[in-house]
Amino acid sequence: MNKPQYAMVIDSSRCIDCKGCVASCKVANKVPEGHFRNWVKQSAPVVAVGKGAGQHFQPGACMHCDNPTCVQACPTGATWKDPATGMVEIDRGLCIGCGNCIAACPYGARYRHATLRVADKCDYCAERRAHGLGPACVDTCPTKARVFGDINDPNSEAAILLATNQDRIVRVVNQKSDTKPNMYYIAATAPLDWTVEAKMPTPMKLMADALTPGLRVAVGLAGLGALAMLGRQLLTPASKEHDEDNQDDQGERVTERNAETEA
């Protein structure tokens, strides 16, 4: 049986650039001012003979990639790919707000949360899904351009849409940093040239090249443990401290997740 992989299949030809998905996401996830978890890209206007000018709109968000460079860039294991869902997650209790993952994302899908002092991004509306609801962007879209689900479940709407359009699927990738994104566009989509090359911090790149995932996390935690604690103290005011698991529990979570991933 295939492991789950939650993803989005998007018919961008249906997008009318109403920005309902962007607004509903900000409200549902309390996204701070000046930041967004999702977006709608615009192509340059195209003039068609006899039809006047036209334009293409491309909805997007975190791609929950199969080869996530953000995971490789994280020194503490706070950013990880959940084998139970295929989603790229952020453990706020482990994040030190270093920003490595932000520069390592070719899609600009991450930002540093000004209040929580940690990295943040789309998680397909975890709180809504916990109550049996779909992601806010999907439920709000008036033209149903976005479809969300487990693409490894042949009975899901997303998997069916993907299977029936297999020869028409497009993925937006950066050729120097192909992260194998799990956002699939049906037929033509534009623009395609807006991604950037992933910026990997040199120490993490060397570890990624030389070590297994398990050893990389262990070495990263051992070498940066003191820095992580100092960083949290400097970046998070005392009044903003959250009730989190202790450091031993955090280490256990990383070890358990790594064992699940390797299994």
Automatic annotation (TrEMBL):
Name used for this protein in its record: 4Fe-4S ferredoxin iron-sulfur binding domain-containing protein
Annotated PROSITE patterns: 4FE4S_FER_1, 4FE4S_FER_2
Lineage: Bacteria, Pseudomonadati, Thermodesulfobacteriota, Desulfovibrionia, Desulfovibrionales
Composition bias type Basic and acidic residues, residue spans: 250-263
GO molecular function list: 4 iron, 4 sulfur cluster binding; metal ion binding
Residue intervals of the 4Fe-4S ferredoxin-type domain: 6-34, 53-84, 86-115
Segments for region (Disordered): 237-263
CDD domains linked to this entry: PsrB (cd10551)
Signal peptide: none
Keywords recorded for this protein, A-Z: 4Fe-4S, Iron, Iron-sulfur, Metal-binding
Organism: Desulfocurvibacter africanus subsp. africanus str. Walvis Bay
